[in-house]
Amino acid sequence: MREGQAWRNFDGVLVCAVAALVAYGAAMLYSASYAGEVAFFWTMDSPVTRHLLYALVGLGLLVLVARLDYHVYSYWSPAIYLALLLLLGAVLVAGESIYGARRWLDSPLIPIQPSELAKTGVIIVLAQYFAARQANIKSPRTTLGSLVLAGLPLALVFLQPDLGSAMIFAAIWGGMALAAGTPLLHFAVLGSLAVATLPLAFTHLLKDYQRDRLLLFLNPAQDPLGDGYNIIQSEISIGSGGLLGKGFLNGTQTQLHYLRIQKTDFIFSVIGEELGFVGALLLFILFAVLIFRVLRSSSVAPDSLGRLIASGVAVALLFQVFINIGVNIRLLPVTGIPLPFISAGGSSLMSTMLALGVVQSVAMRRKPRHRFESA
Q: What is the pTM assigned to this prediction?
């Protein structure tokens, strides 16, 4: 396909949804870090300024990645896989330790979180693997091979320790394996093994604080001033927002900083308190539009490789949104997964834009449409 023809298929709706989510995130970061000092938000120390700069860089990455045919990334998938394993291994050896976890590598510009980059890498690698084995997709060997490919980075992320991101890798594998046509019997066997090993994993694999989080999820009142504090405060924040919220910059839990980590893991609680159900519904609509456009790219992809790449990105986005919001409304235990485009964090924002650039590459090289088919 000629370059000009490919750009005519550029998905502008997807980019508009991304821009709207970035703007929504900037507004909520403004509120979450507001302390009556408006001038602060024009400095490089401001989370709003950094969020917008990361978004601009991410948009550049999206366009740059979209220019290349996605088959190029498939061709380089072995090198991509090796690079992401080296980065994840480097974090365990030389990563910056924060609260006992090693998840970031220092760089001259911003700290890099390799687990965020690895998500896109794993999607490309798994898509290439499944696409090349469509004729043998029902073979147990194919399923086991894909498990190994996803399991190595998952294990390295789990060792950081980062249980939340490790769960995302598992979700990516599950969604892509299902989209590739892996037999349901394989999922049933693996699910039974996972359930059977849960007691062993809970006892021997999880850190003490991870076990405490799971137990406090059932009854946060056991430690209301410690690990259960933010769970209780997030419930108060969202519950007090009602239908329309208390108003932008008027949330008491947010502005009086009763809610901790409100710029990252618990930013949805800020939305619930200040903008209420209507503000949360608007956020859901924006995410629904974005994920629908990614799934649309999957449906118009010219081959199984493109279809699987877009499916993997859709699964990763949907799972992160579900987990983050589930934690905020106490549907799930605290895991520390950011809300895409909304939470503060350069690595997460730019890595997500990078993944959407690959999706754009798929959409731009889509199979020919009937002339009467709607966009």
A: 0.92
